[in-house]
Predict the 3D structure of the following.
Amino acid sequence: MKFYDTYSGKIVEFKPLHKGEVRMYTCGPTVYDYAHIGNFRSYIFEDIVRRTFKYFGYKVTQVMNITDVDDKTIKKSAELGISLKDYTEKYTQAFFEDIDTLRIERAEFYPKATEHIKEMVELIKKLLDKGYAYIKEDAIYYDISKFENYGALSKIDVKNLRKGVRIQIDEYDKDNVQDFALWKFKREGEPFWKTEIGEGRPGWHIECSAMSMKYLGETFDIHMGGVDNIFPHHENEIAQSEGATGKKFVNYWIHIHHLIVNGEKMSKSKGNFYTLRDLLRIGYKPEAIRFLLLSTHYRKTLNFTMEALKQATKNVERVFNFYYDLKTTVFKEKEESSEVKEIIGNSEKKFRAALEDDFNVSLATSTLFEFIKKINKIQSAGGIGRKDSELVLNSLNNYNKIFDILPKKLETEIEEEMYKLIKEREKARKEKNYKRADEIRDILKDKGIILEDTQSGVRWKKRSDIS
Ligand code: AMP
Ligand code: ZN
């Protein structure tokens, strides 16, 4: 496996810290609102990374934090006059509903910031002891001039550092490299925790250092997030974690490029966003949204348009129809085809090579469509027998381990009894017993099952699917 590591700025070969295992941390949602599909581009790519490692036999431990205390959640809950907990609970639930809808596999851990105050306080104490942090009236700050490697991830120019300039808010821009707040002392009307380092609440960056190291160890394999996280968030995570432990924090950094609309990053603050729910309401299918978000290479910006979503819908339908035909055709018994075997083998090889090469999902996608096209051609000429069809279906299921766009349950699934009747009709036809064959066709028709004879064998459709 090789992929692009932001820290070294190169494509590197992946070497896990523990043989056969991957431990990865993925920055999660701030639960102050519904996530938008730009956020989901990141989460879906992280899902692809997770599935790719599993596909290659690794055991994956993934942690995704839930930021349930920060400037935004506090402000919004105060505006509505409800508790921070009640407010964030609603959007945490919505987040889980959305990732299930998009078939994003669940991570092993979803730690909440508010449930890890103790760990954050411990970390801040260490930073104070080691001289990386200092106390001011309003907050405890991290002194970035003390951390020699500051800027190594984002390659920001530390020369412009204005020593001792501090910032308390959670987000600040790249032009102002400043000391950031680790712990914000209690302010009127804001939630706070009583701790050894005083009454207050954590800054945003410290939570990811504390929670990643708690669940994955002081050094772990991979840390991911969108490119907007590189600076300051991930830079600050490195400074906090390595300052406290003296050890390397993360071996590989992977960053996902943005989903943009009309040339601008999709974001809440710009108001140019769609939530998943918006798109579902218009009538788009989750599988199509998933497919659109995953099929552009993660190191390219993805320009979101409704046109692209329509195209993704068509592409998903192509895969679905292929699957549907395989599942609803009673294939003829015949010798296995060496050509089919060869196509399956070559395509899967190409697919694996694409994934191993910097998670090249766009190449993996075109490999799948090439595979479908080749098999369809053979199938329409009657060249697929029952055994071939099983191999093809098995291969399609392998692709689906990554893409996950096939229906969970086929609505057209028919009962065993009906299937037996179809088989009986085939037998009757072979024996030229057309009377019985027609009788069966009628019985099935009464049950809403329409038969269609194709080159590869008889195929059924449910009347409800046709209308
Ligand atoms: P946030 O809730 O803003 O902290 O974002 C959660 C995750 O989504 C982070 O990993 C961000 O980098 C990522 N993200 C935010 N906006 C976009 C976007 N337009 N495209 C891709 N990823 C994004
Ligand atoms: Zn984070």
